[in-house]
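Fold it.
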Amino acid sequence: MMEVVEYGGWPNCIKLSNGKIELIATTDVGPRIIRLGFVGGQNLFHNYPSTLGKTGDPEWNNYGGHRLWAAPEVFPRTYSPDNSPVEHEWDGTTLILRSSDKPGGLDKELRITLDPASTTVKVIHRITNRNPWAIDLALWVLSVMAAGGRAIYPHEDYLPHPDVLLPARPLVLWHFTDMSDPRWTWGRKYIQLRQNPAATTKQKLGMLNTKGWAAYLLGGDAFLKRYPCLPGATYADMGCNTETYTDPDMLEVETLGPLTAVEPGAFAEHTESWLVAKLDCGTSDADIDAKLLPLVAGLPSVS
């Protein structure tokens, strides 16, 4: 299931495969998962050709793939470079990628477990505070998806007025969010955002997603993730555990853990459960209900 491979100019990548799907993680930089998809199929993650194979740069590089950040977004802590080698361990089941001695005193770790029989992956994200003081942060997990696809996020259940009078959840906009942009579909059950390489502007949206799932559809393949929404927790960015961003290159499916005071030597953790599947799904609520929701139901729950 595990082998060392060259990928994109990095000679020491780790490939995990069960014969159905495969993922590739970098160890020359990171921690980062740079490829995910069916064996022999397309990479669902976006890669930036200009940064493939680079190492040792003093400034942060956006290589693409799947990465771990810390929210709220502040400079320079959020953009601490991950351009140097990471430690890795393989116990026959789980691949552990671990950075250390990074600027800002935050060690980042990915624990990746590919199911041997299915097309599911469990990824545990961990940040350890190496500073002599406590730090308030949220684990911020970003999957940078390949161009040309469509992201889907569920609404809260529709309930008519006056059966329920209290608000359902926050939807958070950025200054550059344009709700009239045709890449958005504001449906009754789902919010959809399309990645368009011909677009000239950027879009971003955040939400509190108590349903705890998101999806990205690309050329007959589907990438789904499940993640926790903890009742009563405080989330960054006006209460978001889910965010999405797109520009002409890619689309990000982002999840966040709760804001946590991480004491010196302690760590915070955030888990995602992934599924890669073949799926032909239209844009209507009925089609998403019929074709995508059964896959969501089959994803292992996380806490």
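The radius of gyration is 19 Å.
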